[in-house]
Amino acid sequence: MRKIAFVTQKGGAGKSTLASSVAVAARQAGERVFIIDLDPLQTLVNWSRARGVADIAVEHVPPAKLSKALAALAAKGVTLAIIDAPGQEGDYFSAAVRAADLCVIPARPNAFDLWASEITRMRVKEKGKDYAFLLNQCPPAQQSARVELGAKALQAMGGLLAPLVSSRVDYQEAARLGRGVGEYNPDGVAAEEMRELWASIKRRLKKPASAAKTPSAKPTKAVRNAA
Ligand SMILES: Nc1ncnc2c1ncn2[C@@H]1O[C@H](COP(=O)(O)OP(=O)(O)O)[C@@H](O)[C@H]1O
Ligand SMILES: [Mg+2]
Q1: How far is CA 11 from CA 3, 29, 86, 89, 166, in A?
Q2: For residue 96, how far is its CA from the centre of ligand 1 (angstroms)?
Q3: Which end of the chain is more exposed for a tag (fewer CB within 10 A), N or C?
């Protein structure tokens, strides 16, 4: 069983939105998916209630019980556990990072999110975990200098997952209905973005940790430039 955690110190970057739509994309690609909602706000527990079907189970688990819960899921044949973490440091964040094979760190293309990404990256690195960034809520045209600089900064800090995810109403409507964008509008661009994103995450999970780890890039400078 593979375990990915959506983490960042910043609320509103899109952790829960992306965790739910990636869960659906992975489910549609044949994975047996379980979502662990570590956020005390229980956003994805509510998403699951709106969903009304149990093909992707969602459970709120306190941090102290996370590793036991994951072992039980693996024994039950779950192939992908997706952990949605709250947007601040603390036990919940630490438990999510420790449990994950890969930490996905979403950020919007703005200075505050990029600064928060750098701090999150440091915390994840301290725990010796692999991570990749994700740029979310980009303007759909995507050629803006702000997006380009944001993408460059995140790339320099340790790798950016493809694709750049745009700001689209489909994400909000799908979430409201307890769906992923791949169900809400399967032929839409957002659905295609999430299929691509799942493919990128899957490829990244296959890389040996040493190859996936990056470099000696100077994050602070890259982030300052982007900001
Ligand atoms: N790609 C996107 N396009 C449009 N709205 C988005 C997108 N990603 C997130 N949002 C919206 O941004 C807000 C914050 O997203 P959320 O997933 O709750 O963030 P987090 O879990 O990181 O706090 C929500 O209202 C959500 O609908
Ligand atoms: Mg959330």
Answers
A1: 21, 29, 7, 11, 18
A2: 19
A3: C
Mean pLDDT of the chain: 91
Domain that holds residue 153: 2-226
For 137-191, what is each residue's pLDDT tens digit?
Answer: 999 876 788 898 899 999 998 899 999 999 999 999 999 999 999 999 999 999 9
Where do we find the tokens 């993408």? 151
| Buried-exposed string 156-176: b where 16+ CB fall within 10 A, e elsewhere | bbbbbbebbbbebebbeebbe
Q: How confident is the model at residue 206 (pLDDT cuts 50, 70, 90)?
A: confident
Q: Which atom of ligand 1 is nearest to the CA of 106?
A: 22
**CATH, residue 155:** 3.40.50.300
Q: Which of 17, 170, 197 to mutate to test the pocket of ligand 1 (most atoms within 8 A of CB)?
A: 17
The ligand that comes nearest to the alpha carbon of residue 12 is: 1
> Ligand 1 — pocket residues by CB below 6 A?
11-17, 87, 136-137, 165, 167-168, 171-172, 175
Residue 215: the pLDDT is 41
Residue nearest to atom 3 of ligand 1 (CA): 167
